Fold each of these.
Amino acid sequence: MEEPIALIGCSSPDQEAEYLRILSAAMPKERLVPFRAMGIAEREAARVAVVANPDPAEVAALPGLAWVQSLWAGVEKLVGAFDRPLPIVRLVDREMARTMAEAVLAWTYYLQRDMPAYARQQRERVWRPHPYRKPGETSVGLLGLGALGAAAAARLTGAGFRTVGWSRTPKDVAGIETFHGAEGLPAMLARCDILVCLIPLTPETRGLVDARHLAALKPGAALINFARGPIVVTGDLIAALDRGHLAHAVLDVFDAEPLAADSPLWSHPGVTVLPHISGPTDMDSAAATVASNLRAYRRTGRPPDGIDPARGY
Ligand code: NDP
């Protein structure tokens, strides 16, 4: 049987049809089959799975898999989910980096230009200008200087924001001051008017943005979380907002998604809720990346470089 490529984890039949169309057009020699439509022989024959937001059990149900290509940048659900080593290739895509960097700049402007305060004032019919703060007087700190953090840093510095960044290992990023490791974090947080979260969810980063680290931010600072919900301790965030240490939080990601209807975050005056839209996958661009990875695999027989399971990203 011709080896199929399994497609797993689309959010709806419409999305599945769209992904099949775009991926098949980008790699006409490959035969893509949705997992749900695969018979036993096809499941056994599949060597590659292309996954969006999959149930790991469906991926594990393909016994002959050689590697998994994610259409998402964050793959924390797949790390450690299998009983054998399985290379996981996450999406690193220029168009996603551009979209995410644009979102970071847009929501940084939203905070720098006091839009949450003006929205509140409008509801209360209050006419009160606030002093203008230039981008150069606003410090933005990036948690994470990887594919997305580095792209965001370039957009922020290009717009004149004072930018600092933090990573696990030392990094040299043009135009920004960098910090690394646990010992570098307090120094960076103390600089931040706006903290932007762009690190992966790993055992090390789960709960990282807690009461202690929020307290280390400048009084009146704001938080943007575009990475993963569990990196921020929700209760600690609400407490920091309630006591006025934090002015506002823009949250695109949550402990459970969709955000539960009874979550206090929906109605908190200091919170902007977004439905996980800051860095959507651009399928045309992603399909070209996936096709290129598959071509290299067919040529060499070696899976592309995957994430480091020990690091978790
Ligand atoms: P990368 O792997 O390219 O970069 C990760 C960065 O985080 C690196 O700089 C890394 O440090 C740093 N990091 C990881 N662990 C630690 C740690 N323990 N302490 C300090 N720094 C750490 O990832 P991307 O930039 O591509 O993506 C980041 C995350 O963004 C994804 O994992 C995903 O969860 C999220 N995302 C959200 C989207 C959305 O729509 N909301 C869309 C796309 C992604 P180092 O450089 O030293 O390795």
Amino acid sequence: MSRSVLVTGGNRGIGLAVAQAFAQAGDEVALTYRTGEPPRAATELGCLAVRCDVTDAAQVEQAYKEVETAHGPVEVLVANAGITRDQLLLRMTEKDFADVLDTNVTGVFRVVRQAAGEMVQARRGRIVLISSAVGLLGAAGQTNYAASKAGLVGFARSVARELGSRGVTCNVVAPGFVETDMTKALNDRQRAAMLGRVPLGRSAQAEEVAAAVRFLASDDAAYVTGAVLPVDGGLGMGH
Ligand code: NDP
């Protein structure tokens, strides 16, 4: 049965691969973009593109209304939008720290809170948050990002406890090194160092993350909540 799916930050990278995976499975998919024209990929996939900056609660509310009007209340929410502002601790500005937390944690809070009301009423819903292996491993130069991604685990587990009795699950996917714009910024030395720590010896394709998200939103994962599913080639083993 087709479901109403919303993917934040769905215009490129992992979010786009997730939107594509749900659309190809026959779901009604809405994806968000921040600026400019609706992404061409959305039209090609038959997805609804809604403008939304997750740092703005009014835009989140407006985007949700548009999705609800077009596809009905969101049944599967994938909170994927995220940013990095890397810098060593001693040089990290308060703004760079706060901006990452605002997008990666408070942004997730805004979209989850928006979607949760209808899910509770319907007594069913699937929430999947995109965290990172870095959230549990830590990474030099990423105190802000690691703090934000670790924060999602506590957030998800709290949501799982609050909403479990209403048939709503909340899980986390923790990707390792995925080939997207975000990791293009790494130089060859950083890339080699990172891949050297991955038992599978390669980076992931965004589609491999999308497959894990789809699993957590599927009937097969009906009894899975509060879980952190690594998709990291073994990078974070032992978490
Ligand atoms: P990209 O940089 O390729 O894409 C990030 C997406 O988030 C874009 O769609 C971007 O929109 C959107 N976004 C950023 N800020 C906001 C905002 N304030 N409001 C709405 N949308 C926003 O990153 P990836 O695809 O690589 O990453 C997706 C998620 O996966 C992120 O949460 C990231 O932290 C996580 N992740 C990525 C890994 C990797 O190796 N690539 C590894 C582990 C986790 P816009 O196009 O407008 O900028």
